[in-house]
Amino acid sequence: MQEIKEKLLQAIEAAKSAKSADALEKVRIDFLGRKGMITTLAKNVDFSKMSVEEKKSFGSRLNELKNLATESLAAANAAIQESAPRRKANDLDLTAPGKGRRFGALHPITLAQMELEDIFQGMGFSVLYGPEVESEYFCFEALNIPHDHPARDMQDTFWLKNQLILRTHTSANQVRTLKRFGAPIRAIFPGRCFRYESVDPSHENTFYQCEGLVVDKDISVANLIAVMRTILSQVFRRDVKVRLRPGYFPFVEPGFELDLNCLLCGGKGCPTCGDGWIELIPCGLIHPEVLRHGGIDPREYSGFAFGVGLTRLAMMKYGVKDIRYLNCGDLRVNEQFSTLL
After folding, report:
1. Which of 18, 29, 31 is nearest to 76 (CA)?
2. CB-based contact 130:189 (threshold 8 Å)
3. What do you get for the CA distance between the two ends of the chain, in Å?
C-alpha cells in the first residue's frame, strides 16, 4: 500500500512540474500508459499470497490512484492551456500554407433543369412539382388514356402494392394543376419519371422530364412553335436544326414530335441518335377531354402541352454520348461540371 501512495505522489509532482503539453503527455505515458509505472505495479503484485480482503483493498487503492493521477494530469493540462499566449484577432500569418478545399459539383441534369427553369420563369411560367408516386387516374385516365387504350402498352409501368404507380411522365401533373389553379395558367413541372425500358445509349428506366402547360383563350399551334424556338435558342445559344413531325399522344390533338438534329454527330448518325435525329420535345394542343377532366371548358379555353426530355437535353448540351453515364453514380461524371455554377 505504501508503494501505491509513493507512485501517486510521484505522478502528482510530475504533472505539476510539466511546462508544456508534450511534457505532460510524456508524464501520462510514464504513469498511465500500457507500460507505465501504475500498470507495471499491478502486474508485479503476487495476488496468490493475498487474502480476499487484501485483494479488494489493493484493487480499490489502485483504482483510486489511477483516478487521482488522471485528475492531476487534467488540472495540469488546464493550467498549461490557460498560461499559453493567446493569438490576437488580427494575428494572421499570410505566409502559412493554405488548406486546399474541394468544391462540390452539380449533376448535368440538375444544371439543365436549373437553366430551363430560369428561362421559363423569364417567360412568365410558374415552376411546380408533383409526386413521383402517382395515382392511375392522374397518370392515365385524366390524360384520355383509359384502361383498354393501346397507349398503355407504350408505357410499361412500375406498379406498387397499394395500386399506385411510379409516374411514367410528368404529364401526370397537367390535370392535377388545372384542378388546383384553373385557367389561364402557364407552368412547367420538372421531375423524375420511371418506365420499364430496354436500356441503351439513349434510353433508361429512370429519366427526367420537364412538362410544360399553357392554357388560355385563343391558344394555337403558332404559340407552341414560338415557345419551342425560344427554349432551344436560349438553351443551346446557337442555331440548331429541328424538325416538327406529326406524333400521336392521347392527351394532345393534334400532336407533334419536335426532333433535334443530333449535336453529338452533326446529324450523321451515331449510337445515341441512330439516324441523325433525336426526339427531344413531344408536344401538341391539349385534348378537350383533358381540359374537361381539369374542370376547364374547352369551348372557352384552349392550350398546348409539351414534354422536354431533360436527360436528353443534358446529353446534347454537354456532349454526353451515353445516357447510362448520367445514372451510373460515378463522381467523375459530376466533377466535370463543378465550374458551371
Report:
1. 18
2. yes
3. 71
